[in-house]
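Fold this sequence, please.
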Amino acid sequence: MATAIRKTAAPSRKRVVKGDSDFLKFEARVPSHIKSALEEAAYLQGLSQTDFMVSAISDAANRVIRENNVIQLSLQDQKTIVAALQKKNPSVRKCEKLRQAIRRSREMAGGA
């Protein structure tokens, strides 16, 4: 039995220009309990629902990107450290890379 694939139209992207900034309209369907939580949270923060959503989405996106970058940098730094430690007499250049890796790790951990 063949399965029918129904194509739906791409979501509309309406450009809204306010002043010098360019904005895209974003629409989402959410369950009613999430909509209620959004309304309450926005009210408690003294924000419009739109401002609350933009802030929450931006915070979440930036956190995911930052966490992903930290993981990638940590793996890269681990490889640098292991490579430097495996050398009996690491060159000055390798020692500098090791110092840089340790410094980046400390900065990411907040212990600059």
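The longest strand covers residues 15-18. The mean pLDDT is 77.
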